[in-house]
Amino acid sequence: MNVKKTLDFVDKNMPDLLKDLQTLIRQPSISAKNEGIEECAVLVSKILKKSGIKSEVLRLKKNVAPLVYGEVKSKKNPNKTLLFYNHYDVQPVEPFDLWDNKPFSGKIIGNKIYGRGASDDKGELITRIKAVESFLKTYGDVPCNIKFVIEGEEENGSEHIDQYLKKYKKKFSCDGVIWEFGYVDTKNRPVISLGMKGLLYVELETKESRIDAHSSLAVIIKNPAWRLINALRTLRNENGKILIKNWHDDVLPLSKNDLKIIKSEPFDTNEFKKEYGIKNFVNDKNEFEAKKALVSGVTCNIAGIVSGYTGKGSKTVLPSTAKVKIDFRLVPKMDPKKQVNRLKKHLKANGYGDITINVLNAEAAARTNSNEEIVKITCNSAKKIFGDYILNVSSAGTGPMYSFVNNLHVPCISIGTSYVFCRMHSPNEFAKIDLLSKTTKCFCVLLEEFSRSNSKN
Q: What is the domain extent for residue 357?
């Protein structure tokens, strides 16, 4: 198949791509609130079918977000299969007052299309669909078998993706997985990532009195907020080092090749600091230390803490409870279940065994070897369309990559269209239209090159 014809198709049909993306953005699908999930799953399936991709909505049980499955069988090359993993759910839009336009507007201004999901992950999804469509509309065939696995719980921890993968293991079988997203840096170079960090997300809660009390009673009633703060102080020191016993025991060390890749990866520290309005990194890390930490650093981050009165003005209250949400980023070989037990033992050993631990999310980390052929294919494809690329050992973020690697036993690699400062998860999220076009073309090239490779599950 002549890839040039598919690239021409992408150029001519960008208005259709943008129209479909606007339709997706305008359909709310907030998994944290179960808002519009069912409707969006049906919509995604319709868009797949409209593009010539056979689709069905798969279900596990009631109150579990449906998974959208898509498939195109190749007439030319039926023994080779590439799977695209994406998600149709999005983050909540709050705070509303910081949006310049309505969160689900899909408004186009210049080279940008705005709205929740514009990048994460509806913009990413549409590039893959349109790449497949370009082959189908041009040739009536695809270079290899294509499968889509599009879940509706990724932003809420992918709680059931492992069950879906086990139940439909045969249906989802493939020779490689293209992950759900990928960044493009300020110089229009796609960041090709080989892994995802794991995550342990917990909520700690301590309770003292039956009801909130007048703050004058603080001389005789203990304040649970202070107790929680004192417990938090035992988890890590001021430099960010986690103090939980044996926390780092299972960490997979970086290889010499990993360090080589990290060292060569560009990272504009000044641009990064400017974007976030910060002067220094944690512990005054230099550029190499910062890059290394993003790939292999474990974290103990307070995501939110609540107790007592937090509204406007004053209220002299002694709260009855205190809660904190903490996310721990994990690296390969760290088992979330073992880490939870280590956290429990630590709190008990330090006199805080009464604090309740609720596990909200637990995902292991995964990392693909840089020597896998799909890595070379993806890098070559990126270079042909973008002119250059950046190879990254692991994303600093988390996704259920381990579930795919563990169940399907294939390499996963991440490449996508999201501008590095696209305000993902924040107000005024956007996608760049020129990057949507380039990424769609990149997938056209990737599909053709993958079909001619020796990658085989």
A: 198-363
Query: Could you tell me if 137 and 255 lie in one domain?
Result: no
The CA distance from 62 to 56, in Å, is 17
Closest to 25 in 3D by CA, of 101, 136, 110:
101
- For residues 180 and 94, give the distance between their C-alpha atoms in angstroms, rounded to a whole number: 23
d(CA 205, CA 394): 32
- The whole-chain average pLDDT of the chain stands at 96
Query: pTM to 2 decimals?
Result: 0.88
Question: Is there a contact between 406 and 196 (Cβ–Cβ < 8 Å)?
Answer: no
Model pLDDT for residues 382-391, shown as the tens digit of each residue: 999 999 999 9
Q: What is the pLDDT of residue 381?
A: 98
What is the b/e burial string over 202-237, where b = at least 16 CB atoms within 10 angstroms of the residue's CB? bebbbebeeeebebeeeeeeebbbebbeebbeebbe
Whether 190 and 230 map to the same domain: the answer is no
Look-up of token digits 């960090």: 197
| Euclidean distance between CA atoms 338 and 212, whole angstroms | 36
Last residue of a domain, one of 363, 390, 421: 363
Q: Considering its fold, how many domains does the chain have in total?
A: 2
CA distance 115 to 91: 11
Partners of residue 432 on adjacent β-strands: 112
Q: Give per-residue pLDDT as tens, 353-374.
A: 999 999 998 999 999 999 999 9
Residue 347: is its pLDDT beyond 80? yes
pLDDT score for 252: 94
The answer on 376 and 304 residing in a single domain is no
CA distance 331 to 251: 6
The CATH number assigned to the domain holding 262 equals 3.30.70.360
CA 267 to CA 361: how far, in whole Å?
30
